[in-house]
Specification:
A hairpin with a 5-residue loop joins strand 1 and strand 2. 15% of the residues are buried. The C terminus is likely disordered. The protein has a two-stranded antiparallel sheet. It is extended. With 152 residues, the protein is mainly alpha-helical. The N and C termini lie far apart (70 Å).
């Protein structure tokens, strides 16, 4: 047992050498994760199993996540998404998990958010939306006409 000093001896008498290995899975709230899994099943039925793994832009995932969070803010934490039958919170979490997966995989080809960090919408328009050869995220776009936003 050279450098491995992390020993986990089970009550049953079994021994496990755990140093340097990923742990903490027992801390994950499995009931909540089960709700996220429902979103995955609904997506597999609507599109195709693992279709999401082909890649989705960071701005798309963030946009979808925020849309679900807004539904929660409007209707409360138990509001259900009509498309999936799952909680909107679970849908938001699913988008975050996909985003974290793509970041972990180094999928910089999907990152259409980071290149625009700190770039003003007016600067982007001057550049003809071609800054770094990618389309700016929705929040950086200048509408052609004034919006009909509510006032007051």
């Amino acid at each position: 047992m050279a450098d491995d000093t992390t020993v986990n001896t089970e009550k049953t008498g079994g021994t496990r050498y755990s140093q340097g290995k990923q742990g903490g899975w027992w801390f994950i709230p499995l009931r909540g994760l089960n709700e996220v899994a429902k979103v995955s099943v609904a997506g597999a039925l609507k599109y195709a199993p693992l279709d999401w793994a082909e890649g989705q832009s960071f701005s798309t995932l963030l946009d979808c996540m925020f849309r679900h969070v807004l539904k929660v803010m409007e209707g409360g934490p138990k509001v259900i998404d009509e498309d999936t039958g799952a909680y909107h919170l679970a849908c938001a979490a699913w988008n975050i998990l996909c985003l974290l997966t793509f970041i972990n995989q180094g999928r910089t080809d999907l990152d259409d958010v980071t290149p625009w960090y700190g770039v003003s919408a007016s600067d982007a328009k001057v550049e003809g939306w071609s800054y770094l050869n990618c389309t700016p995220p929705y929040w950086a776009r200048i509408p052609d006409e004034p919006s009909n936003a509510r006032t007051g």
